[in-house]
Amino acid sequence: MTKKDGTVIYDKESISLLNMNGYYIASPISLNVGEYALTEFLVMDDSNNVVYVAPLAGSEKAYLVKTPLSINFEVKKDEVLKLVPEVVSVGNSIPSDFGYSTISFDVVPHFDFSLSAFIYNSTIQNWELSTASILIENEGNVLYDGNIGAITNVISIRDDVSTYNMTIAKPGYKTYIYSFSHDSLQYYKINDNNESLKIILVNDSEGPIPAHEYITVEGGTFQMGDENGIGQSDELPIHTVTVSSFQVSKYEVTQAQFIGFLNDIKCNSDGSYVDSEYGNVTYINMDESFCPLSIVDGKFDFKGSINVPTIECPAIGITWYGANAYCKWAGGRLPYEAEWEFAARGGNLSDGYKYSGSNIYDDVAWNQYNSEEYAHPVGKKLANELGIYDMSGNVWEWCADWYDVYDVDSQTNPTGAISGDNRVGRGAGYLSNDLSCRVANRHDNNPDNLITYRGHGIRIVKSIN
């Protein structure tokens, strides 16, 4: 409704109507004396659906009434005005048929997911939340472009695409690039009570792949096994073993070193390889969520994971075949179990410690009580008597032997059983307890079982002729 000069008085005003035998009583409208025009008139039901319309002059349906809108009228003092606009039932018509402007809208489906970016602070040797920029695309269309804070961020994203190509960048760190399927990103919806999506940003200033350092272990004789291994009957009987001199790597093989190996041999992107000795086998389980490696431009690269924060951490998730092949590639071999225990005990310099280098395992071992459930860069705990690091805790270390019971007889340079189902693992890992971290503790695992390699890594031995 407007004044004669076009000034709008009421615009889409809702007025209650009461039906009395076909006549309607309206809520009162206050108007000053003057001339007006009724420009639009719609009758709606209780659900706000339009049921009757007064057509506008010039519209397609205007011919149905004698006097289409607008209708001019005058309000006079002390006179009753009877205004009777003609209306038409809506039926199957659309607003434009009656001359009314319309808008339409599409409801865009979306969902909210939570995301956090982490960097590793080497000073405090722990994770910390980080800021970064984030870009999410689908087939070249930008779905989200912005920044994330050092918090658990909530991001709203369209729910009508099949893939979400995510790029997260931070100066000084490798750019994180990953393509999430619709279902995999929906897993992190905030109303599904699942974990937040945790993105690991890796320092981009890593140096060249370090060479291996070796410690010479002079040959000697020791008592192998432990009568105090509670519940560990495979540590008995204690028996006399003599080993010849050998060299052992000072540190566990790192992520950087193992990545160099995979790229040098051109390992398949799924972690499998046709081994010259064992045929088509898996060297590293790339399918596990904890795996810190990815494929970038056709090569293995370190992307990090919540279990493996830096490239200086030990190689992890390695199968026995991968450990065996790496040692040969590096010019050595896997240690035999007797060699491993002799070196872990400190060789001829042994002080008889329960753990490798101490009777206090927190001094020498990353374990379930101090690791915060992730592997740590090699060499950060105390070394043992020979100067070897991490032979207790951090990651389990594969040995060459088939797993078997001990022989009571004295032995020289034993190499274990000639066959079996499982291979020996030694040293325990970052999720292990104090019992497992002892130098005498033994562990066995099937080399074909890809599920249990989260904590398995490598240490190299070289024979001295």
TrEMBL record:
**SUPFAM superfamilies the UniProt entry points to:** C-type lectin-like
| MF terms in GO | formylglycine-generating oxidase activity
Q: Which InterPro entries match?
A: CTDL_fold (IPR016187), Sulfatase_Mod_Factor_Kinase (IPR051043), SUMF_dom (IPR005532), SUMF_sf (IPR042095)
Q: Do you know which Gene3D superfamilies this protein is assigned to?
A: paralog of FGE (formylglycine-generating enzyme)
User: Which Pfam families does this UniProt record tie to the protein?
Assistant: FGE-sulfatase (PF03781)
Residue intervals of the Sulfatase-modifying factor enzyme-like domain: 212-462
Put simply, this protein is called: SUMF1/EgtB/PvdO family nonheme iron enzyme
